[in-house]
Amino acid sequence: MARIKYYYDTETCKYERVKVKPSDVAINILGFVSVAFLCSLALMPLYNSYFRSDREEALQRENQELKLYYEVMNKELQKTTQMLSALRERDDNIYRVIFEASPIPESVREAGVGGVDRYKEILEKGLKNEELILSTRQKIDKLKKKMYIQTKSYDEIVTLVNNKTKMLASLPAIQPVSNKELKRLASGFGMRMHPIYKVMKMHTGVDFACQRGTPIYATGDGVISVAVHNSGGYGNEVQVSHGYGYITLYAHMERFIVHTGQRVKRGQLIGYVGSTGTSVSPHLHYEVLHNGQKVNPIHFFYNDLTPMEYQKLLELASVENQSLS
Question: How far apart are CA 135 and CA 141, in angstroms?
């Protein structure tokens, strides 16, 4: 039952009933509702931090899954970029060197793929993970641009190949010993510890550690320009002149089965691995010379290796260990 309020009227000396106006009731109700609404707004974040709805739980799980998939996709993008970098290195340091073509400028390879307007559609949506999506899209676009440039480079190389079939057959393009498991490369090109003098010296070739008597093959078509027996230095040595400024050298052989002036084909047997000259163990020391300059032979093993195998061989050759001669 509603409480009735009275007040004392000093004029009539009586208690009079308090009359409540409808406007006062409306104001009171409105005030109560306003206070309740403000309290609910203040308590809502606290409530939501401790109690989530089923929909919010599902959305949170979905966000976590999306972030996980993004991380996986990002790793795949990094692997693809690394493989493309390996192809680019072979293109600049092998194919274009071989055909004496100018490398593609860095400014062209690293050119941008458009300004902010290119991603205007993503920016206008105001997505929650906008930065994540935008960075991934930019990485993909950059990778696609690099792949396009690389394919155009290969198109140019194909044209050069068609014009230089004879030259291709003459160039050193395979490993001089069988090395399918990539375990025989013992020392690469560059500064290495000399096995006898125990000081860092320039190693002008690559060493393949093999058993004595392992077959050695010519790495390209050419003519035997040197076939000599030495008691020191390179020991039993063979040199093949391939033309186009290229010469390959095979040292420390047990014996060779070719003679000066003889024509050989790529893959033809020319001798056997030994340990003659200044050698500490059976191995083949192999060099490539271009226009009189000794260059890294690792860049010429492109005819019998996949990109992944070539990358592994690069890693092995970069180890600064002790040479075998």
Answer: 10
Task: Annotate 176-230 with DSSP letters as a single string.
Answer: SS--TTS--EEE-SEEEE-TTT-SEEEE-SEEEE--TT-EEE-SSSEEEEEEE--
pLDDT value at position 7?
A: 61
Where residue 165 falls among pLDDT bands split at 50, 70, 90?
confident
3-class secondary structure, 168: helix
- What total of structural domains would you count in the chain? 3
Residue 103 shares a structural domain with residue 31: no
Q: Tell me: do 85 and 149 sit in the same domain.
A: yes
| Percent of the chain topping pLDDT 70 | 77
Same domain, 189 and 313: yes
Separation in Å, CA 157 to CA 101, 150, 297:
9, 10, 20
C-alpha angle with apex 264: 263 to 267, nearest 5 degrees? Answer: 175
Q: Quote the CA–CA distance of 70 and 75 in Å, as a whole number.
A: 9
Q: Output the pTM of the full model.
A: 0.51
Q: Is the pLDDT of residue 323 over 80?
A: no
**Three-state DSSP string of 47-62:** HHHHCCCHHHHHHHHH
Co-location of 201 and 296 in the same domain:
yes
Q: Give the chain's count of helices (H) and strands (E).
A: 8, 14
210 lies in the same domain as 296 = yes
Domain hosting residue 126, numbered range: 66-163
Domain identity same for 274 and 152: no
Strand partners, 152: none
288-301 burial code (b ≥16 CB/10 A, e <16): bbbeeebbbbbbbb
